[in-house]
Q: What sequence folds into this?
């Protein structure tokens, strides 16, 4: 143990090096995923123009961090602000105008833009180690760090210009500093809580769930206090503390939006809404409107007093960080209308309540699942003991160590919140639960003893490492052994769970290695295929398919397209693929 205490830093550094290797290698091998171009180009436009018209569905901070290194290479980047895509608010074309028309290669642009995400993954790994060590000791800290370092889902999303890793990192760190504040009642950790809350709120809208989570933890902690403060004093302290936290958080958001101060009437979305309202009042285009939208248009009718009041507010009151609130409204309506999702061979616009629980079971390593189940069973065992059964509710709450509330409640509430979502686009939306599980694994290392524990832990850890390494470097496609690994994954999930457009570059490599001049292609993604010099013909869909004899070529199809809702390429399901590129692009050789 003394040797470990002396040299543990070597193990920590080794984990950091491995994280860098996994992510930098994957970064160099993969083409852009669907959302990355939009995020990176939007971040670049924020920094250059301080204009937040692009990609308001996500707050700006992580996009700005990702685009920040590109400022050193402006002379090699296209200036896309004169293109129609900028004036027409076309974020997808704007991304292509910046990335694929620049002197700097698209691969280099993405390699540079992904570096901040990789650095964030290292930061989070260190915080996982730090908190686990503080709570459960050095061995538990190293165990948690190992689980984190080799987590296929963490690795998969640690090198993309998407907001999921930023949310995971800053959500966790916010809870860490709030726990430290509640434990020590000091201003430093209170201020840090406000700063990191602001950072996470400025990275992803779903982090707004932290706003009610923090007061819940605060109130639970107050149950532990044995002082004789009056209710009024406690209430004053509560109001004072959270006023400071939320003010600091909003200042961070305001800064991330470049101190934006905007009257709603000047916003493009409001202007479009007014045009839609005029059409509605004239009896036009009512079929495409939802009941909620109709209600809003009726309330804001300029012929009514309510509409006149709203119009006055829109024209007279400048709103700080206006685009943040605009983005919140956009996300609300996105969730209200739903998003087409795939699960177990079925499609739905509104998702399934069991989507994320099932995604967790399918894509989480067996070792992590076993640790989670073991800890849940152990908790129930402790609760059912006589000591706990005889307690009153307040006594029961106080008998549970407070750090458990901080490690269990935030990810659990977030998980439950996710279950209600109509946007079921991948395990990445619940990525935040993993660092909390890794820290909680320290309970198994430090607090629980049973026969053969050390032996079983070592075996489980070795299996975990093997499971992770076996899918290298295609971590996005990871599915655990229970469901048959990534080869069987598409039976259950597609999209960002396995196929996010990341293998366009690898398709070109495959074509070169196998002397394939062109392919018949259906590609799910946003990478510019001409950039990779992929010569292709469009793959005939089911309506134009006249039998395999007409297909005298090598077929390359993204698995998301293969299993599309319209079953456009269902005729291919009668054949076994000859190759799978990164598990996301299936190859069928139909050459005569």
A:
């Amino acid at each position: 143990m003394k040797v470990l205490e002396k040299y543990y830093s070597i193990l920590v550094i080794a984990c950091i090096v491995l994280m860098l290797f996994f992510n930098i290698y994957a970064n160099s091998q993969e083409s852009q995923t669907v959302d990355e171009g939009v995020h990176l180009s939007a971040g670049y436009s924020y920094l250059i123009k301080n204009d937040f018209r692009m990609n308001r569905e996500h707050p700006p901070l992580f996009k700005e961090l990702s685009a920040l290194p590109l400022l050193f290479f402006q002379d090699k980047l296209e200036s896309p602000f004169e293109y129609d895509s900028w004036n027409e608010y076309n974020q997808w074309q704007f991304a292509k105008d910046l990335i694929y028309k620049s002197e700097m290669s698209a691969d280099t642009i993405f390699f540079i833009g992904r570096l901040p995400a990789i650095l964030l993954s290292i930061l989070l790994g260190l915080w996982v180690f730090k908190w686990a060590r503080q709570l459960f000791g050095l061995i538990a800290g190293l165990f948690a760090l190992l689980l984190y370092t080799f987590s296929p889902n963490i690795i998969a999303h640690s090198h993309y210009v998407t907001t999921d890793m930023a949310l995971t990192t800053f959500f966790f760190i916010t809870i860490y500093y709030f726990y430290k504040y509640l434990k020590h009642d000091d201003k430093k950790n209170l201020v840090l809580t406000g700063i990191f809350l602001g950072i996470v709120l400025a990275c992803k809208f779903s982090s707004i769930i932290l706003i009610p989570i923090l007061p819940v933890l605060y109130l639970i902690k107050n149950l532990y206090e044995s002082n004789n403060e009056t209710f009024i004093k406690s209430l004053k302290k509560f109001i004072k503390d959270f006023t400071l936290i939320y003010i600091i958080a909003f200042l961070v958001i305001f800064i991330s939006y470049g101190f934006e101060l905007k009257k709603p009437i000047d916003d493009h979305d409001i202007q479009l809404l007014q045009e839609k309202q005029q059409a509605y009042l004239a009896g036009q285009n009512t079929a495409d409107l939802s009941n909620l939208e109709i209600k809003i248009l009726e309330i804001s009718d300029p012929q009514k007093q309510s509409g006149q009041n709203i119009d006055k507010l829109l024209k007279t009151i400048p709103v700080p960080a206006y685009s943040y609130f605009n983005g919140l409204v956009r996300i609300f309506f996105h969730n209200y209308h739903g998003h087409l999702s795939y699960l177990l061979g079925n499609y739905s616009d509104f998702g399934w309540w069991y989507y994320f629980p099932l995604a967790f079971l399918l894509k989480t390593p067996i070792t992590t699942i076993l640790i989670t189940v073991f800890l849940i069973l152990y908790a129930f065992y402790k609760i059912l003991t006589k000591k706990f059964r005889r307690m009153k509710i307040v006594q029961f709450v106080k008998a549970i160590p407070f750090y458990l509330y901080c490690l269990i409640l935030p990810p659990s509430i977030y998980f439950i919140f996710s279950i209600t979502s109509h946007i079921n686009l991948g395990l990445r939306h619940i990525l935040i639960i993993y660092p909390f599980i890794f820290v909680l694994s320290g309970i198994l290392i430090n607090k629980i003893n049973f026969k053969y524990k050390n032996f079983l832990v070592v075996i489980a850890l070795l299996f975990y490492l093997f499971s992770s390494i076996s899918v290298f470097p295609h971590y996005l496609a990871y599915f655990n052994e229970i469901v048959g690994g990534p080869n069987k994954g598409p039976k259950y999930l597609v999209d960002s769970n396995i196929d996010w457009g990341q293998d366009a570059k690898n398709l070109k490599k495959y074509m070169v290695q196998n002397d394939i001049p062109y392919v018949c292609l259906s590609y799910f993604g946003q990478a510019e295929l001409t950039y990779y010099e992929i010569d292709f013909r469009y793959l005939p869909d089911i309506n134009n398919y006249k039998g395999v004899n007409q297909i005298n070529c090598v077929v390359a199809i993204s698995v998301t397209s293969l299993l599309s809702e319209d079953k456009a390429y269902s005729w291919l399901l009668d054949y076994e693929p000859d190759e799978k590129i990164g598990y996301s692009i299936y190859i069928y050789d139909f050459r005569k």
Remarks:
- The first strand starts at residue 261 and ends at 262.
- The two ends are 66 Å apart (CA to CA).
- The chain is about 55% helix and 5% strand.
